[in-house]
Amino acid sequence: MNTTDKTIGIIGLGPVGMTLAVHLQDAGCNVIICDNDPIKTNRIRNEGILLENVIHRKAKFNTIYSTAAKLLQTNPDYVIIALKTYQVDAIIKDVPPENTSVFI
Questions:
Q1: How much is the pTM?
Q2: More confident residue, 56 or 93
């Protein structure tokens, strides 16, 4: 798989979502991200994602969405939902199964 040809959407920017976003972007994937917390998304827009402690990395992202529906409208090749289990039901109904590979 040529990673530069694939767009990966990540919904949920907690520890797992942020770590995946940074590493997938480092691997050459086009990564688009989404979180519904406006404070978090604004901070990421301005400062990027900073991974600290065991892993030390910082990454900037060009495409950040505040809703899963907006991210899904871009029709990414893959979608990773990195949410708490109680949040998944609210998102999964918006995922178009015919066009997207989804990982929860």
A1: 0.80
A2: 56
